[in-house]
Design a protein that fits this description.
The longest helix is centred in the first third of the chain and has 31 residues. The strands form 6 sheets. A 4-stranded antiparallel beta sheet has the order 6-5-7-8. It is elongated. The chain folds into 3 domains: 170 residues, no CATH class; 123 residues, no CATH class; 103 residues, no CATH class. About 15% of the residues have low confidence. The chain is built from 20 helices and 15 strands. Helix 8 runs antiparallel to helix 9, helix 8 packs parallel to helix 10 and helix 12 crosses helix 15. The chain is 44% helix and 10% strand. The chain is an alpha+beta fold and 532 residues long.
Length: 532
């Protein structure tokens, strides 16, 4: 009779021989799904035994065994490291297998007599291959906090009921997915916790938090854990601006008709994660401009951005820099540039800048996509930001020239320039009503003001040259294909060619009053009456 290891080797060889890797591409639809299900059934059985072996390795590597523990005898610090080296799985996967294996392995009592596993029903379903490890881990993770306070018989009944749901042995004839089972396990855990949810709330209050990591690849990782009510508010915020219904909420009748013809959201190329990022960016910008938050040095929350004057002068991108000027938003930050020294600039509204504008060559810079060479740096973030982002900030606000000598001494301070005043912003808000790109639902309070004709091209800081754009459309206006121009002081937009091949210019507004005026004129033309 072959050993277990020999049997496993024979099984592995047979599977490698019989299962062709490109087989799925040749399957019919029915064959594909049937074989996928059978393969998963085999995988469930294999996964269960992998967890059982991991649990036994952990049992033989207990710290109290000292030098006799298995991991130490094999030159490893822990059971997880030993499993990593034997199986080549990740450390996190090894720990997941150990946790499941420990929860489902039979134990030994204080007197040496056998004792059942902590989760006997789950262990039995795993052993037959009826229950997957994802589902088993979800149930254990949710039920375990209630174990110390739950009635043992009620706890066992909950475990049995959840296993029945998972393997379709209960009232439902359909197997639960791992995610569905997790939700049910949460409900059982709440019911079993005789002390209520307050202790869990206290733990959550201690663990809540957000962390900004170190920049990698031009992005800053965000991690943390939110209180449920805070997460609910954030989800509602995302839902309000990203649901298909609200996504069309600011459209005109013509825009709605066009969207219906090509499918709602047909022009949206961002992923859902990217859209959520942009909603959060706009919300932060709006909050920082609101004036309701603590000031820093008498100005709204401001981020300093440093960039060399030569880099900013080097390109002709929009809102470019003259003699090394930075910008500031209407929130009141200060900006700067130096014609051969250093300048500083702030942009109010939380994403502004101040510049450490150094003259000199551009050998340290990288080519920016809009024009010019070099990069800028934001205070508190290690990753560089592009000159395109700097010019977008400049387009949004104003500039102030700050000049340093070669030693770094401040020698000149100019007056603020190119800043849309609060009065101008209010006027533009009433006229545009929100981001002027058709189909965009970002409200006016969350928008930035874009110079249609850049300052570098002689554009004025005047309502006739400013339009509202959301964070995403402002950042991508040079590359997205959307065109914007002013005709007699009215914003007109032209869709990119891929969206509307024959696209012409048409007026754009989200202002309710202007839309009402437009409807009245259209109704008057339909009646044959002269428009008012």
């Amino acid at each position: 009779m072959p050993s277990t290891r020999d049997a496993l080797e024979q099984l592995r060889s047979m599977l490698a021989r019989e299962l062709e890797f490109d087989r799925p591409a040749r399957c019919t639809d029915d064959e594909l799904l049937a074989e996928l299900g059978t393969l998963e059934a085999v995988g469930r059985l294999v996964d269960a035994h992998r967890s059982a072996y991991a649990g036994e390795v952990a049992e033989r590597s207990r710290v109290e065994l000292g030098d006799a523990r298995l991991s130490r005898r094999r030159g490893c610090r822990s059971a997880a490291e030993l499993i990593e080296r034997v199986t080549q799985v990740s450390g996190s996967e090894a720990r997941r297998r150990i946790a499941l294996g420990e929860a489902t392995r039979a134990r030994t009592g204080l007197r040496g007599d056998p004792a059942p596993a902590r989760y006997p029903a789950i262990a039995a379903a795993l052993a037959t291959g009826d229950l997957g490890v994802d589902a088993a881990a979800s149930v254990i993770r949710e039920l375990e906090p209630a174990r110390p306070v739950a009635d043992p018989s009620a706890f066992a009944a909950a475990e049995r009921a959840l296993v029945d749901e998972a393997i379709a042995a209960g009232e439902s004839p359909v197997r639960c997915t791992a995610d569905e089972l997790r939700v049910q396990a949460q409900a059982w855990s709440t019911l079993l916790d005789q002390d209520g949810r307050e202790p869990d709330d206290e733990r959550a209050m201690r663990r809540r938090g957000l962390r900004l990591g170190r920049a990698r690849g031009g992005l800053v990782p965000l991690a943390g854990e939110l209180m449920p009510e805070v997460a609910a508010q954030l989800r509602r915020l995302f839902d309000a601006y990203l649901s298909p219904r609200s996504g069309l909420g600011f459209q005109t009748a013509e825009e709605r008709a066009e969207s219906a013809g090509r499918g709602a959201g047909a022009g949206e190329q961002r992923t859902a994660d990217q859209q959520r990022h942009d909603v959060l960016a706009a919300a932060l910008d709006s909050a920082a401009r609101s004036g309701e938050h603590p000031s820093i040095g008498g100005a709204p929350p401001t981020v300093l951005v440093s960039v060399r004057a030569a880099d900013l002068r080097g390109g002709g991108g929009r809102g470019g820099g003259g003699d090394g000027r930075g910008e500031r938003d209407e929130g009141g930050g200060r900006g700067g540039g130096g014609d051969d020294g250093r300048g500083e600039r702030d942009e109010g509204g939380g994403r502004g800048g101040g510049g450490d504008l150094r003259g000199g060559d551009d050998r340290h810079g990288g080519r920016d996509g809009v024009g010019g060479r070099g990069v800028a740096y934001a205070e508190g973030v290690d990753a560089p930001i592009s000159l395109r982002a700097v010019r977008r900030m400049i387009c949004t606000g104003g500039t102030q020239s700050v000049v340093f000598d070669d030693a770094g001494r401040l020698i000149a301070l100019g007056s603020p320039e190119r800043c849309f005043t609060p009065h101008q912003r209010r006027a533009i808000t009433v006229r545009d009503g929100g981001c002027i790109i058709p189909g965009c639902s970002v409200p006016a309070a969350w928008c930035e003001i874009h110079h249609v004709v850049p300052d570098a091209a002689g554009g004025a800081t005047h309502p006739d040259n400013g339009v509202l754009l959301c964070w995403f459309h402002h950042r991508s206006i040079d590359t997205s294909g959307w065109g914007i121009r002013m005709i007699r002081g009215v914003p007109h937009v032209r869709p990119p060619a891929w969206l509307d091949p024959g696209g012409g210019w048409r007026p754009s507004t989200k202002s309710p009053t202007r839309l009402a005026d437009r409807r009245e004129r259209e109704a008057a033309r339909a009646r044959g009456a002269p428009a008012a």
